Amino acid sequence: MIQSLLIANRGEIACRIIRTAREMGIRTVAVYSDADAKALHVRQADEVVHIGPSPARESYLVGEKIIAAAKASGAEAIHPGYGFLSENAAFAQAVIDAGLIWVGPNPSSITAMGLKDAAKKLMAEAGVPVTPGYMGENQDAPFLAERAAEIGYPVLIKAVAGGGGKGMRKVDAAADFIDALASCQREAAASFGNDHVLIEKYILTPRHIEVQVFGDTHGNVVHLFERDCSLQRRHQKVIEEAPAPGMDEITREALCAAAVRAAQAVGYVGAGTIEFIADASEGLRADRIWFMEMNTRLQVEHPVTEEITGVDLVEWQLRVASGEPLPLRQDELSINGWAMEARLYAEDPAKGFLPSIGTLELFQLSEHLGRVDTGVYEGAEVSPFYDPMIAKVIAYGEDREEARELLSEMLEDSAIWPVKTNSAFLINALAHNDFVTGTVDTGLIARDGDAMTEEPAPTIEALTNAAMAIVPRSLHAGFRLNAPDVRSAVFMLDGKRIEVELHGPGTDDPAPAMLVAESGSVWQLTTWRAAGSAGGAAGDGAILSPMPGKVIAVEVAAGDTVSKGQKLLTLEAMKMEHSLTAPFDGVVAELNATPGAQVQVEALLVRIEKEDA
């Protein structure tokens, strides 16, 4: 068994690998860039090695630095996680050539499956059904246009070396083909250094279904059933689940058998995923599911497979890399229950899903309700240098509806601030009728995404509870006997003016602001104007008139030092006297009240500054 392991990655996948390695008694080594000096994976590893500046191309993508770190730390093996160098055959070979153990497939398997056109030819030869299309070497535009016409529109142009939706275009009509082809080739060349494309028949009601496969060095290959990853935004997966809704046993057997043949065709070792596209216009049928590509690594969504099979896939990776046979035979694997995973991103759906960066001053997820894989913590920085995914939220249930409801509850209970997240978007997606009924296709978000990105609003109950932590008890001072304990106050909520009716005595320790967390979203409530029958001591030191009235007494002068709760002045209004008091210890920085003066509602009467301000 491997005794020491370097993880050539960061974030939640590095933490995920460290967790299993620790349980297996394996010493872990983390690598980190400047931006990740205080990252969670750095905190959790047994040893750490700095590998360079923050940009990934100068740190995590430099294979020589990774290998040097492994040698310097005495690590026996390197686990690449996913992304970065995980599917780089040259890096895998360099690791092996350096005398280290590569926790992944053979470099030849990575190469065989790395180019989509070559992989599809190989799969067709192995008896794996492939999507109708053209995968040849001729890249002349007129020739490709002819092939597209033969296939029949709509078609999909895909970069042969692509991934993540880059170098991919859907074309609906022949008149649009040439321009789309040129655009696709430019993007492919810029992203992958290879402008070759293939053309596929575009499936009108597509579902993205993939099969987890695993091979060892003893010639064994098994599948761990399927996952459905059809809920996507711009070809990026949003919510994944296992098993696939609507999958019958006959179709499952045919699909999983095809996935095993695909892995066997390249002598696959380790964890891999065979991705298929299904035409779901008539439900899931074996004759309408075709091979798309193979991911020669652990997938982001691997936890849902772990949840329904009871298998630790990282443990399997480490055992296989150590030369052990697969821990279980095919007949010892089964599906139990249902699992769903949501990818929680630091991004703002209301602003076109722009990444959101900054300090996680509040980071709370409901780990007691399910599984949370994360690479951040409260107080950590979300930097602009890497993928914005900050956590994976995973729910398990006896059936699909139980898993869906629990995942929604976990997201609703989350509270993250001031960094924006897609939590509310995920909650809306889980509640969409097509998702509830299990009839999702990959175009759902493109069609109905606007409704899912609507900004939620906090309930009056949540606002009232938060406001009571801001409004000081001193606002009640001066009430006549038996006066009603009801006030109204005007606040600012993320830049918007709102008025809340308050019930109760207020607080002895008013906060200048309060966070309102509800339904997966967080808002900041700040005092702007306090009004009503209880005066106007404001959390920011501005003492405002709660209503039109007459100043009948002034107890302080400009420059005076005052204590929290000290009476500043008395206002007569509506036949009642109201004492306005200092919200905190400080100095009278401004005084705009004189005895006998008539004042209007929300007039600034006194401003208190903290002495250290």
Can you characterise this structure?
Strand 31 and strand 32 form a beta hairpin. The chain folds into 5 domains: 4-103, Rossmann fold (3-Layer(aba) Sandwich), CATH 3.40.50.20; 118-131 and 205-336, ATP-grasp fold, B domain (D-amino Acid Aminotransferase, Chain A, domain 1), CATH 3.30.470; 133-201, ATP-grasp fold, A domain (Dna Ligase, domain 1), CATH 3.30.1490; 342-455, D-amino Acid Aminotransferase, Chain A, domain 1 (2-Layer Sandwich), CATH 3.30.470.20; 460-609, OB fold (Dihydrolipoamide Acetyltransferase, E2P). It contains 16 helices and 35 strands. The strands form 9 sheets. Strands 14-13-10-11-12-15-22-20 form an 8-stranded antiparallel β-sheet, with helices on both faces. A 5-stranded parallel β-sheet has the order 3-2-1-4-5. Strands 6-9-7-8 form a 4-stranded antiparallel β-sheet. It is elongated and about 95 Å long. The chain is of the alpha+beta class and 613 residues long. It is 26% helix and 32% strand. The two termini are 60 Å apart. Helix 7 crosses helix 8 (177-192).
